[in-house]
């Protein structure tokens, strides 16, 4: 974190007339200070002295706005007090108000209708203000066969730098689309969504109250139901309201980090939830302040996430691209895995790799500094658009018989586990996207009423996406095969599939029949005959041992001699 030197603080102190913390002179200039290494006892002492604290999300520290005499009082009591900057007296006009935000976004959509649409993500919980979402793509009115990427900001009302970061992304993309081929490629081949302000109610309160201190953080949920806004009791921390270990969040309504009465109790978080579940972005950034840290998902509760090495690598890359106010750059850190925050939930529920970036060195810096911080974050934001097209696997999953797209589950055998929902293909195009570190992987795909296909030895490099298209064979259960459209077709089930040693074939005959069940390799050579005789009416099972065969795809053919269509399918042998 960027802080002024102790020398500067001493100059400030010696230039003023001191008084005790209780004898506060309201005419004194005020400063933002940082107090690190807080615990419950220290916090109680400071607050009893009449100094309100604004706590950091993930560090044992807080900021406060104090007079010089209050700062001297804390130092005299042994606190480590660091001056950060003069305190603003009101919201700097360089920050967009909510009305100005809508006007700006509407103007962008009007000037660039070929690549921009403006819509609402949802509505705020109390004032029912629309939460704007801007889509940037070459056909923005359509849902295209392209990966989705999301940027959002301002879950917390006192973090307007987050909103300005989002606006810088929008401005850069629309301004350079016509002249920069790299930007054109990003826009043409992805669907980019930007939600600058997740908390319209809270931001309006901060602006309308002329930055009343302590700066407001939550939304305006009426916690006690009395119909009046009580800043000492009301409001929900939107970034503690997601359904990931919500039960471990702060249950006190008066707390700055109050989790809310239930997971997704707030209309704001419900709106993002529905978006994530619908679009399943490949990657996402949610902007906050302060700290100059790029947080990545490492912990899922008390266990490491399956993709933590990947998320750390990407977070570290982003951090190195963002200059800090102190002259170095941001750094990567693991987000707390026991709090109901957006990145953990987005990753757990859909596999979206979401990063939380704490910008700036105070919650609300001056407008000039805020705009600088937003501009400094741009390269890190654009890296997501670059990274989405290299280092991973993409493809389409379709029905092997009809060619229609299938909404299927896609697993990376070496990585995925029960902690995180696997990535899925969409039902409109059958497209799936999965980012990975360079290496060799096994890809597995399956859907309801289909076989499972396993593709081994998929090579993933660092500069391109490996394309793995998969066709799934539709399998009808035994209780379905008597339907009128299937009565003339034999149905065969094979389990397990893929198989490493022994597989069991099951089939049902509606009358006595002479059948053959034959296995072929991928070039059509016969490798086994399992049945070649008359079978009676009813269900039959036969086993096949594949231990002596090489790994690969094999085909089975069940052929009757009377009144029935043959049944075919494939078996994947793995070693």
SSE map:
Layout: H1 6-14, E1 30-35, H2 40-48, E2 54-55, E3 62-67, H3 68-76, E4 82-86, H4 98-111, E5 116-123, E6 130-136, E7 148-153, H5 160-176, H6 181-188, E8 191-195, H7 200-208, H8 267-279, E9 283-289, E10 293-296, E11 299-300, E12 303-304, H9 308-320, E13 331-334, H10 342-350, E14 353-359, H11 367-376, H12 378-387, E15 392-399, E16 409-412, E17 423-424, E18 431-435, E19 439-446, E20 453-460, E21 465-467, E22 470-472, E23 492-495, E24 502-509, E25 513-520, E26 526-535, E27 538-545, E28 552-560, E29 567-573
Parallel strand pairs: 7-8, 7-9, 9-14, 10-13, 15-21, 15-22
Antiparallel strand pairs: 1-3, 1-4, 2-3, 5-6, 6-8, 10-14, 11-12, 15-18, 16-17, 16-19, 19-20, 23-24, 24-27, 25-26, 25-28, 28-29
Helix pairs in contact: 5-11, 9-12
Q: Helical residue percent?
A: 10-25%
Counted beta strands:
29
Percentage of residues in DSSP E strands: 25-35%
**Lateral strand order in the biggest sheet:** 5-6-8-7-9-14-10-13
Unreliable spans are 1-25, 477-488
The N- to C-terminal Cα distance equals 52 Å
Rg, Å, rounded? 30 Å
Number of helices: 12
